[in-house]
Amino acid sequence: MTPGRHALGLLGIFCAAMLAHAARADETCLSPFMPKITGQEDYVYVYTLGVAGLGDGNDKLVTLGANPNRPGYGKVVSQVSMPGRHEAHHGDFTDDRRFLWLGGLDTSEIFVFDVATNPGKPKLAKRISNFVAKSGGVVGPHTFYALPGRMLITGLSNAKDGGGKTGMVEYSNAGEFIRTIWMPTGAEYGYDARVKPDLNRMLTSSFTGKKNYMRPLGDLMGDAEAMKKFGNTMVVWDFHARKPLQTLAVPGAPLEIRFALDPRHYYAFTSSALTGRLWGIFRKDDGSFEAVDLAPIGDPAKPPLPVDISLSSDDKFLFVDSFVDGTVRVFDVSDPRKPVVVHEKKIGAQVNMVSQSWDGKRVYFSSSLLSNWDKSGADDEQFVKAFSWDGKTLEPLFAVDFKAEKLGRPHIMRFGQEGFWAGTSSPTVGEGE
Amino acid sequence: MTLALALLLALFQAPKPGTYELPPIAQVQERELVDASGARVGFPGLAPGQVAVVAFIYRGCHEATGCPASLALLRELDRRVAADPARAARVRLACVSFDPKSDTPARMAELRDLMAPQSDWRFLVPDGRKALANVLRDFGQDVVELEGGAKRHVMKVYLVDDSLRVRNVYAAGFLDADLVLADIDTLAPPH
User: How many CB pairs under 8 A join A and B?
Assistant: First the structure.
């Protein structure tokens, strides 16, 4: 092997004593360019949609205690309100994991939190309010994906017509706009993006525009014309050149993408929300990719709106959340072309996001999908629930009721660890000219 | 070489130089650092048409996939750049120490002798913590000093153009000499 050649790949992210708790791959789905928490997480950061009349009504970053050996286990240990409601949705860390970027799908505001200085009490460090103007009209910052020195942000919509035509936007870690890459003709919709560096390939998926995702779900489902305006494609990109190579047909709004983590596994999974199917995206011998319809999720006659998926670090289990029936189904994907459901559990009246620890022993679920798509009345449960996973069954660990705590609608979850960045000094802070 | 690594090497192909864009990511400043002979020199100190490949390292790093890996990348680049005189005139390599307290110019000279550079490869150290903080801030390179002197940081390698703009960043998630050379030839194409 040539010195310096890639395939350090999923191993060393950190120099110095970091490998004790940061090593291979992801805590389930993070960028391969980011250090990972491979041991016990101390905190779960929960990006939470504000609800009018509930608490202060603002969007929030809520920090939950997640370490049973530390104070505040299973409780809210801190919360920071953002002014207003922005359709809080997704976010992720920068490549050095010092900052957590969070996006609002309605206002396209981006909030950047410092999670390194005091991991138990994140602090708002920067607000980006000109994303739409800077990007040339991209609306609805969705996936935040750390690249070396910068953040890749996928859009869902555009400022011109609020439809699904959109693009991807890159910012520097310092928060400066770099460029916009519009989705290609014939595959204009966007949603998620994931990179397999060793193949120099990126996959993107497709959802719908702002006119649809901000509309009450019942109205939308009854509008046949509007329901035609969902993505049916995935795009294979030359990652380094950011150029589209291939468009794959994946009907019914393919959402989250998870590449297999073993460097010898050249495939990814996604679920199609409207058709309720599990899909595999496989590299073929000629280097191109194929999309394969692998299995139904739940009853094919009543697609349960699969939303989030999470692949275990050994590529064995795929957790698939479906919103309508509030259920997680765990597929054994050891044979990726023949997934088998090995466990099924109802989490609540509704469920959306799922995040698992690197060791696969803890799995967290949150309830909210979109402010106008969440259920109503008693079914409008808003929670984060933690479970243990032993490879066979999920058992409850703790639950936080986000209504009783007057917090709002919990959405994406990311992990934090006390001491991840602790040191005697940091020359980059408070010194220099 | 394992079968898995052999397959990876076979699957990856760097893009053709000049067929893609590398938009600026950050603006750095010209700084004064100390070289391995103890002389104060401009950093990056590029002439028009030159690019620099910059890695932050420290000699006390013993994590094989950390600083030694970025040094290995620079060493491979050094040999391949030196083998092409036209390209060699357009490329400067630089490793800058995180540890001005321990990595004296004499220690950096030892490292230089170990690496035995064949191209324009500089071994630099900031003159104190303030100078270190300035250059780290320019590049957005994180570091935390731990008890015992270890420097915790995400390993990154930077490509800088002659207008002092960072044009790409390479991290441990993917280090590849072919890719860096393609980027070099994209920014500073051979005539």
Answer: 205
Residues 6+ apart with CB under 8 A from B110: none
Domain hosting B122: range is 24-187
- Identify which of B8, B21, B75 has the shortest CB distance to residue A198: B8
User: What kind and span of H or E run contains A346?
Assistant: strand A340-346
A302 touches chain B (CB under 8 A): no
Shortest Cα distance from A306 to chain B (angstroms)? 30
Q: Is residue B176 one of the residues assigned to a domain?
A: yes
Q: Is the pLDDT of residue A433 over 60?
A: no
Q: What is the CATH number of the domain that holds B137?
A: 3.40.30.10
The residues near A160 (Cβ < 8 Å, ≥ 6 apart) are A137
Nearest partner of A231 among A214, A255, A203, judged by Cα: A255
DSSP-derived pairing of the beta strands A167-172 and A60-65: unpaired
Q: What is the pLDDT of residues A313-363, one digit of tens each?
A: 999 999 999 999 999 999 999 999 999 999 999 999 999 999 999 999 999
The answer to whether residue A421 neighbours chain B at the CB level (below 8 Å) is yes
3-state secondary structure chain B: CCHHHHHHHHHCCCCCCCCCCCCCCEECCCEEEEECCCCEEEECCCCCCCEEEEEEECCCCCCCCCHHHHHHHHHHHHHHHHCCHHHHCCEEEEEEECCCCCCCHHHHHHHHHHHCCCCCEEEEECCCHHHHHHHHHHHCCCCEECCCCCEEEECEEEEECCCCEEEEEEECCECCHHHHHHHHHHHCCCC
Write down how long chain A is: 433
Identify the pLDDT of residue B153.
85
Mapping DSSP to helix (H, G, I), strand (E, B) and coil, where does residue A33 land? coil
Specify the number of domains making up chain B. 1
Confirm or reject contact between A419 and chain B (CB < 8 A).
Answer: no
User: Which of A149, A263, A426 lies nearest to residue B166, judging by beta carbons?
Assistant: A149
Task: State how beta strands A317-322 and A193-196 pair.
Answer: unpaired
| Residue B121 included in any domain | yes
**CA–CA dist A316, A330 (Å, integer):** 10
Average per-residue pLDDT in chain A?
91
For residue A423, pLDDT beyond 60: yes
Residue whose C-alpha is closest to residue A130's, from A141, A146, A145, A143: A141
Helix B67-82 crosses helix B177-187 at what angle (to 10 degrees)?
60
Q: Identify the CA nearest to A416 among candidates A93, A33, A76.
A: A93
For residue B134, which residues of chain A lie inside 8 Å, CB to CB? 432-433
Asked if the Cβ–Cβ distance from B145 to A243 is below 8 Å, we say no
Position B107 in a domain: yes
Choice among A291-300, A381-390, A402-411, B62-71 with the minimum mean pLDDT: B62-71
A contact residues 386-405, partner B, Cβ 8 Å cutoff: none
Confidence check: pLDDT of B3 > 90: no
Check: CB of residue A61 under 8 Å from CB of residue A90. Answer: no
B123 part of a folded domain: yes
**Cβ contacts (< 8 Å) between B173 and chain A: which residues?**
8-10, 13, 31-34, 148, 197
The Cβ-side half-sphere exposure at A395, using a 13 Å CA radius, reads: 7
Q: How far is A3 from chain B (nearest CA, A)?
A: 5
ipTM: 0.93
Q: What kind and span of H or E run contains A135?
A: helix A131-135
pLDDT in tens, B39-50: 999 999 999 999
